[in-house]
Amino acid sequence: MSDSAQQFEFETALEQLEQLVTQMESGQLTLEQSLQAFEQGVALTRQCQHTLSQAEQRVRLLVEQNGVSTEQPFQLDDDDQ
């Protein structure tokens, strides 16, 4: 895994995205600031999507049985809800 992938924290990125949305919805940013916030949001979104895709691949590998991949629905425990 590369250094940048190791340093990326999914939860931190989600918090940053929420902050960017709040700032943009406030209407207090200039056009230039809004564009910068949007660009940053797009970059964070791409990183999050990549991280989720990698996690999905790992889950599929873990579920694989006898060389045949079987898809299983994700179920939350009662404690997780």
Detailed description of the structure:
The chain is mainly α and 81 residues long. It has one domain (3-62): Helix Hairpins. 68% of the residues lie in helices and 0% in strands. It has three helices and no strands. It has helices at 3-7, 10-26, 31-63. Helix 2 packs antiparallel against helix 3. The radius of gyration is 18 Å and the shape is elongated. It starts with a helix and ends in an 18-residue tail after the last helix. The model has no long low-confidence stretch (mean pLDDT 82).
Set down the secondary structure blueprint.
Blueprint: H1 3-7, H2 10-26, H3 31-63
Q: Nutshell version of this structure?
A:
This protein has three helices and no strands.
Q: In CATH terms, what is the architecture? A: Orthogonal Bundle
Number of strands: 0
Helix and strand string, N-terminal first?
Answer: HHH
Overall number of structural domains: 1
Radius of gyration: 18 Å
State the major sheet: none
**Residues in helix, %:** 55-70%
Kindly report the oligomeric state of this protein: single chain
Strand content: under 5%
| Low-pLDDT ranges | none
Span of the ends, CA to CA: 32 Å
Q: CATH superfamily name?
A: Exonuclease VII, small subunit
The whole-number mean of residue pLDDT values reads: 82
Keywords summarizing the entry:
mainly alpha, Helix Hairpins, 68% helix, elongated
